[in-house]
């Protein structure tokens, strides 16, 4: 959230929308590291809630779970996954039975898992970057 | 003076970001953060705040349900990742609607709306013969003729009628401008009274249905002018 400077630049993974990230935090890399860290800390619990809801056929809880995790991906710049979450949330709104969500759910789970892997890798890289500023 | 705020948000990273925006602005003091409505209500009913940053969809109850149960109206900025609540936001008279994630610039625009909007109060109608106040999560109509007096209780005021008392978040200073001046008069920094309900006046006190109310030196002259003394 500081003003951008040209003193140093971290190159984010191409799956991360770095323009979007900079629009939120400028080049406050320590804070971006914190955002990644907090998001990862809560990811498993939120992901599990989604999986439990789907397994139980509870579409309302499934929608709630996806609704919660959706902006988390926005905060870390994974805007494509945020959109996938949004589309699935809309599908939940329309769906009356679990079967109608099967394909979308599979896609969602794959996206969330991939998002976590990207985030973990970027977090490690960013942590090193911040620890060695020069 | 900075706005005292509470953040009600179940997504930790969003709450942290919001708190950081507040801190950076230098105009908002975050008093607490709660991840659900239940915990927030316990706090908010004990501590009056100026502003709520409120998520809509949370585990348990929604942000709108919190507003329904709150005994007063702080300013409210909804923070959500959906736009479909715009109508409800309008219905609840919220000041702004931040779609998550939002930029700091967008946050500042919201802050601008907060600081330029009219002071929040719990009177929603100032028609000549009645007012509406928010009490116990609902709007209650009080006819001017039913109100005996209004008493300050710090950040709250108590409306006293013949058979009931209503506590709501407001100030005597704010109410002084809102109530019908033909019926009501401020007699003390902590009291506005219905002038038609005075039973008697003894030195520096007046009595309404057995309730003793002080008249300050500053207001005594104006009170005496308004009485129909023959």
Question: How would you briefly describe this protein structure?
Answer:
The complex is a heterodimer of chains A (134) and B (230). Chain A has five helices and no strands. With 134 residues, chain A is an all-alpha fold.
Protein model, in words:
The complex is a heterodimer of chains A (134) and B (230). Chain A has 134 residues and is mostly helical. Chain A has a single domain, classed as HPT domain (Four Helix Bundle (Hemerythrin (Met), subunit A), Up-down Bundle). Chain A contains five helices and no strands. In chain A, α2 (29-55) packs antiparallel against α3 and α3 runs antiparallel to α4. Chain A starts with 17 loop residues before the first helix and ends with a helix. Mean pLDDT of chain A is 92; it is low at 2-7. Chain B folds into two domains: 3-116, Rossmann fold, CATH 3.40.50; 123-226, OB fold (Dihydrolipoamide Acetyltransferase, E2P) (Beta Barrel), CATH 2.40.50.1020. Chain B contains seven helices and 16 strands. Chain B has helices at 12-25, 37-44, 63-69, 86-91, 104-116, 172-178, 217-226, and strands at 3-8, 28-34, 51-55, 75-80, 96-99, 123-125, 130-135, 138-143, 147-153, 156-161, 165-169, 184-188, 191-194, 200-202, 205-208, 211-214. In chain B, a hairpin with a 3-residue loop joins β10 (156-161) and β11. Chain B is elongated and about 70 Å long. Classes of the chains: A mainly alpha (134), B alpha/beta (230). At the A-B interface, α2 and α3 of A face α1 of B.
Task: Spell out the key features of this protein.
heterodimer; A: mainly alpha; Four Helix Bundle (Hemerythrin (Met), subunit A); disordered N terminus; B: 230 residues; alpha/beta; Rossmann fold; OB fold (Dihydrolipoamide Acetyltransferase, E2P); 2 domains; five-stranded parallel sheet; five-stranded antiparallel sheet; 16 strands; elongated
CATH superfamily placement of chain A: HPT domain
Query: What's the architecture of chain A, going by CATH?
Result: Up-down Bundle
Query: Total number of helical segments of chain A?
Result: 5
Spans of at least 5 consecutive residues with low confidence of chain A: 2-7
Could you tell me the CATH topology label of the largest domain in chain B.
Rossmann fold
Give the topology string of chain A: H per helix, E per strand. HHHHH
Number of helices of chain B: 7
Outline the biggest β-sheet of chain A: none
